[in-house]
Amino acid sequence: MKGFSHFMSGVAVASFGPWAIEAAQSGNPIFFVLGGACGILPDTLDFKFYRFFYHHDVYVTPDPKSPDPQYVADEIARAVAMAVDEKRYINLKLVSVRLGADFWQQYSVKFDNNKLEVLVKFGPVVNTGQVPVEGTEKRYPTVARARLKAKVIQTYDAALKVDIFDGPTVGLKPMDNGDLDLEFLPWHREWSHSLTVGAFLGLLWMAGAMLWAGLPAAGSLAGALSGWAAFKGALGVLFQHYAVAWQGFVTIAACYGVHVVEDQLGHMGSNIFFPITKLRTPGLHWMHSGDGLPNFLTVWISCLLIFWNLYRYQTGMTFHFSFLHLMMVGLVIPGLAFAALRWLLTRGEKIVVVKGDDADDEWNEMKASGA
Amino acid sequence: MSAFWIVLLSVCAGTVLSSVLACLPGLHVYNVMGAMVLGILALEGGTHAIPPDVYLPAMTGMIVGWSMLNTIPAVLLGTPDESAMFTVLPGQKYLMAGRGFEGTMITAVGGLAGAFFLVCVMAPLAPRYLPVSQQVLKGHMHWVLWVIITFMLMSEWPKGGNRGPAGWAKFFDAWKTLIAGLITFLLAGLLGFILLTRSPVGHEVAFQNIMPAFVGLFAIPWCLLNMISAANVPPQRTAKSLAINGDVILRSVWSGGLGGGIAAYFPIVTGGVGGMLAGHATAQRDERIFIMGQGVSKFIYYVGAFMLLFVPGLNLTRGGGAWMIKTLYTPLGWADYYLVLGSIAVASGIAFLMMEPLTKLTLKFIDRFNYRHVSTVALAIIIFMVVAVTGWIGLFIAVVATGIGLLPVLFGSRRLNCLGILLLPIACNMSGFGETITGWLRLT
Q: Which of B83, B150, B276, B413 is the best mutation test for A, with the most CBs of A within 10 A?
C-alpha cells in the first residue's frame, strides 16, 4: 500500500485510544502523531536507513557512455551461477544508468525459464518523471541473452525495470530442487515489517516514559500485597502514574502492526514475527499495492473512523447520528453516486485504466516522489 | 438598474479583471483585493459608498477568475504560487513538448469541473453536513496540522545514495536531500515565527506581510532556475482536442475535490498540501488526471474556502478572501449564499472562456522571445510588485525567503517544505506553545 494509506490507518488506529482524544482535546497531539508516524515507520526504516547498509554480492553497473546489454546479461548469469555453485543466497544489484541531470537509460531484465536464459534489453531514455524522451525508443534494438545455470522462479510478476534513481536489488535463493527463488528487494520487509518489531519499539517508548515519570509517590503502593482490594488500588496507581508509558506502548505497537497487516493483503507479504520467522509470508494477493481504489478506500475509511471516534467523545453535540448513518452518508451513498455517474459518462467507451504492476509500490512511490 | 444586472455586471467585471491580472507573475489576487478593501472602507459612510451587491459578486468573480487563470504564469512562465506548485512540473513537461496550450487548458477544464462539483454537489449538502462536522472537529484542528506536518516530513524519500558499496558514505549521500528538506522546513518556520510575531512590514499593509515571503519561497527560485538553466522552449502547437473523457474528468474531480476540500476546510492547510495529500490518497497514475486534478484542487481550495463563509449555519472563515470580506460584511443567510453560488457559476463560465485567448497570447509572447528573457521579465515584474505592495522591507523579506526557497532547488528536496513558514508557527500556536517558542526566540 502507499505510504499515505499506511499513515492514515495509523492515525485511525490511534484514534481508538480514548487517551489520544482526551490528550488532543487538551492541546496535546502526541498520540495522533505517534499513530501516523508508526503507521509509515516500517517503510521509513527500510527506505531511509536499512537499504544503504545492505550488502550486495554482485553489482551490475552498465557504462553510461556505451550501454551494453550483453554485459548486464552476463553479470546476471554470473550471479545465478554463484548462487548455484556456492549454494548460498546471492544479492544482485542492478545499478541505474544516469545520462544527465534529468535523463536515465532504461533497461529491463526478463528470465526465460523454458530456454534457461536471461534476456536484457535497453529501452528508451527517460526523464526523472519516467517519461520516455521522444526518438530514443529504438536506439538499442538488440536483446542480449545469457545462459542460466538454473531456473529463476519469480513468485510474483515483479517488473525488473531499471530506470530512475536507485536500481533494484534481487535476491537469488537456492531451493531444494535446484531452482533459484527470486526475491525482489530482499532488504525490504525483511525484519522491519513484523509485529514483534512494533512491540519492541513500543517497549522502548514505555521504558523511556517510565524513566521520565520516575517512581510513584512513596507510600502510594503500600500494602499492595496485603489483600486483593489493596492490590487493585496499587495497580490503579501504577497505571495512572505510568499512563503515558503504557498508552504509548499500545499506540505504537498497534499502529506499527496495522502496517504489517495491510501489507499482507498485497503480493510481497511481510516477515510477520521476526526473529521467530525468518522469511516473508507471501501476501494474500487481494490487491496491487499501487492500485487507486484500495488505497483511496483505506484512506477514506480511516478518515470516517477517526471522525466517528472524535464524535463519540464530543460533548454538547446538537446533532446525533449512528455509525451506520455515518457510513451510509460518508461512504455508501457517495460511492454509489460516483459509480452511477461514471457509468453514465463512460457508456459505450472502452476505458483503459493505468494499473500498477506487482512490483512493490513503495519502491515505485519512492522513485516517483519529486515535488 | 435592477439588482440582477448590478450583480451580473459586477461578477463579469471582477472575473475579467482578475483573469487578466492572473497572467501577471507574482501578483496574487489577495493583493488586489486587499487594496480594494482599503478603498471600500475609505468610501464607507460617504455618498459614494459601495454596496455589498456590488463588491460581493465582484470579489467572488475575482477569486474564481484568478484561481482558474493563474495556471498561465505558473505553467507557461514558471512562476507558481504555492497552490499551483504541483501543476508546474507536469505543466512544464507539456510546455517542453510543445503542448503548453494543452496543459493549461486541461487545468482549466479541471477548474470548470471543480465549479460544477462545488455548486451542484457541495453547495446543496454543505449547510446540512458541514456544521455537524465543524462541531466534531473544531477542537481538533491543531493535531490535524501536526499530523500533516509529520506526513510531509516523513514522506520525502532520499534521492541520492544510489551507487557504491553499502555503508555510511552511501547513507550520508542519501540523507543530503532529506536534511536539506528538514532545514528548509525549520528555517521557513523560523521566518514564519518572525513575520507572524514581529513583522517588519508596515501596519498599513499588515495583511500582506506574508506575501513577499511566499514570492521569495516559491516564485523567485523558479524564475532564477529558469534563467540559469533555461532550455529553449520548442514551438507550441494548439491542440484540437484535449483527449479527455468522462472517466478522466470524474477521477480528477474525485482526487482534486478531496485535496482542495481538505485545504479549504482545514486552517493553514494550503492548496499545495491538499494537492499532495490527494495525490497520495487517490494514487492516480494518469498524467492528465494529475494535471486536471490540480486544476480542480486549486479551484476548490480558493473558491470553496471563500464559499464556506456564506454557508448558512457554518459561516467559517477560511482563506485570505474570506478574511478580507469579513472586515466589510457579515453574511446574512440563504440570500447571500445563493448570491455567491450564482456568482461562482457565472464567473467560472467567463473565466473558462478567457482561458483560451489568454493562453494563446502568453504562448505568442513566449514564442517571440527567448525563454530566459521571459523569465527575467517575469522576475522583474515580481520584484516590482513586491516593492510596490510592501516597500523595500518587503523586498528584503523576499530576498531572505529566496535564500530558503533555493535550498530545495539546490539539493533536490521537496519544495513544499517551504510551507513550514505557516505550518510550524500556526501549529505551535494552536497547540498552545507558540508563545513559549517566540519567548525563546526573544520575539515576545
A: B150
Least trusted range by pLDDT, from B102-111, B162-171, B367-376: B367-376
Residue of B nearest to A293 (CA): B282
A99 — phi, psi (to 5°)?
A: -105, -15
* A319 vs B132, B162, B170: nearest CB: B132
Most distant CA pair in chain A, distance = 86
Decide if A7 and B254 are in contact by the 8 Å CB cutoff.
Answer: no
pLDDT tens track for B316-333 = 998 888 988 988 999 988
For chain A, the C-alpha Rg in angstroms (whole number) is 26
Contacts of B93 in chain A (CB under 8 A): 127, 129, 131
What pLDDT does B87 receive? 54
ipTM: 0.87
Distance from B194 to chain A by nearest Cα, in Å? 23
Cβ atoms of B43 and B49 closer than 8 Å: yes
* 8 A C-beta contact, residue A151 and residue A80: no
**Does the model's pTM come out above 0.80?**
yes
Residue type, B242: L
User: What letter represents residue A247's amino acid?
Assistant: Q
Give the up-direction half-sphere exposure of residue B320: CA atoms within 13 A in the CB hemisphere.
Answer: 20
Q: Cα–Cα distance between B402 and B223 in angstroms, integer?
A: 11
Q: CB-based burial of residue A248 (10 Å sphere; 0-12 exposed, 13-18 middle, 19+ buried)?
A: buried
H runs (alpha helix) in A224-291: 228-241, 243-263
For residue A171, report the phi and psi dihedrals to the nearest 5 degrees. -95, 130
Q: Which of B244, B280, B290 to mutate to test the interface with A (most CBs of A within 10 A)?
A: B280
Q: Where is B275: in which H helix or E strand?
A: helix B271-282
Higher pLDDT residue, A231 or B307?
B307
pLDDT for the residue A358: 46
Domain range for B322:
3-440
Q: CA-CA distance, B368 to A111, in Å (whole number)?
A: 52
Q: Do B344 and B60 form a contact (C-beta atoms < 8 A)? A: yes
Note the pLDDT tens digit of each residue in A177-227: 989 998 888 888 889 999 999 999 999 999 999 999 887 776 766 666 677
What is the number of domains present in chain B?
A: 1
Assigned C-alpha cell, B217: 519561497
Residue in B with minimal Cα distance to A10: B147
Q: Contact B246/A96, CB-based, under 8 Å?
A: no
